[in-house]
Amino acid sequence: MTTAISCANVSKRYGDVRAVDGVSFEVHEGEIFGMIGPNGAGKTTLIECVEGLRERDGGTVEVFGMDPERHTRAIRERTGIQLQSAALPQRIRVGEALDLFAAFYRRSTDWRSLLARLGLEGKARSYVERLSGGERQRVFIALALVNAPELVFLDELTTGLDPQARLAIWDVIRDIRDGGTTVFLTTHFMEEAERLCDRVALVDHGRIVALDTVPGLIASLGAENSMSFTLDGAVPAERLKAVDGVTKVEQVDGRVVIHGNGARFPHGALSVLAEDGLWAQDLRTRQPTLEDVFLALTGRELREGEAG
Amino acid sequence: MTAVGKLVAVQARRTLREPAAAFFMVAFAPLFALLMGLVFGNEPQAEFGDRGYIDANLASFPAIVLAIVSFVLVPIDIVSQRESGALRRFRATPLRPVGYIAADVLVRFAISLLSIAAMFALGMLVFGARPAGDLASVLLAAVLGVLAFLAVGYALAAVMPSQGTAQAFGNVLVYPLIILSGAAVPTAVLPEGVRQVAQFSPLTQLVELLRGLWAGQPWAENWVPLVVLLGVLGAATAVAARFFRWE
Ligand SMILES: Nc1ncnc2c1ncn2[C@@H]1O[C@H](COP(=O)(O)OP(=O)(O)OP(=O)(O)O)[C@@H](O)[C@H]1O
Ligand SMILES: [Mg+2]
Fold this sequence. Notes:
heterodimer; A: alpha/beta; Rossmann fold; Alpha-Beta Plaits; four-stranded antiparallel β-sheet; 11 helices; 13 strands; 33% helix; B: mainly alpha; binds adenosine-5'-triphosphate; binds magnesium ion
């Protein structure tokens, strides 16, 4: 596996704030690597140090084996950048912007088909500032992809997009990954990390607190799946406990809660109830998520302070 | 097309789409000359040495345009692009800073010069104004004026901390400078002391140079304004290059 990005001990302070506090990691070529963490965790600061848009205070960063602060232009040619907050000069049409940015690079793609893939067909003649927030976000994603980059940086890829547009963008990102592009992104959305990223770094207070595949991170927690329901009638606790995979049966606040390993035990439990002619009501199942991993590692909620 | 070529095309279209800026940069000078000509006519008058109003004053009108472009339009546009993050987006590409600035300067230079040329053409064709001197020299001086004052615009853009400050500073400065320059009202109406202070304004020096060459004086007689304008060009370029910021 070849390395696209390698960071060692990167740090960046703003006054007393250690925005990035000694971070080391590698991004492999051809993977979608995500950073997830709460507001102010240092994601933007870190990604921009890697992009060479901010000067780090310490540590080393290599992109394609080059230091982004020294070989800025060579790296820019081969990378695409989507900034968390970006703008274009006023009164530029979408098509003009794409055409212009394509001219900045030696290599470029057909921006018209790029717009179509991002659901912006028919918008080429619109002024960028008159687009909706979600459309504008997609224009900036298009600008990051216009040079068919070998590596693309996406800071808050789908912020401001509706769920449908989000799914469509994930497809585009998977496609470009499958085409060989390495993706380095940050996100607030757990679902985005879980469904899109090959590997995820959990970031908190300027540090990476865990880094692995999503299943790997969740498995590292050692947490169990659970199901819960209410029941009209006597709980066959002993027989439920005997179901394959079940580790514990308890009653909490009038609900029956069954803990277990794997994904099969809920079916077993429901068959036991059916044998007794009992029906589980208000049935819920729960798998541990990245959220639980983050909570376990930091004692904080990932979504703390996030609006919506 | 090269990156800078494309950038020139986009900046030109963008500028012309901005109604206020397009008006000032292209149409203001000829319209101003037209208006003044219609109001004052161009009949010979004793107070202008038996020349007409337009004959006597046309050459100084470019200074008004350049004052507005360099003290108001350029700083506000560049600072607002810096504040909005638009300049930063360009920084995230392989485009070199000098490429961006070159394209921006080229567009504004061409538009300013076009406007000034249109103004001279209008004064001469509609009102029959004629330079006593060499028209090419007057236009050359106008080119120098455009370069020097565009540089002032970029220098101001570089040092202005915010759009609000740029706006306030430009508006406070631009009208006194125009009045002191003698381009709008004859310096003769100014008190003696004020007139002496006015000599220190580069805009006044530009007006003197343009008027002198239009009236048929040789360049040698106008070496003071020439040196002042070259100095302004050099100093402002240095300030702009030293302090220009993308974010
Ligand atoms: N230019 C700056 N000057 C001062 N402090 C800064 C600057 N940029 C970031 N910080 C601080 O550094 C910390 C990390 O900020 P950063 O923007 O990297 O967080 P983030 O993880 O991207 O947050 P978000 O999810 O809200 O985008 C924050 O405490 C922030 O206030
Ligand atoms: Mg951020």
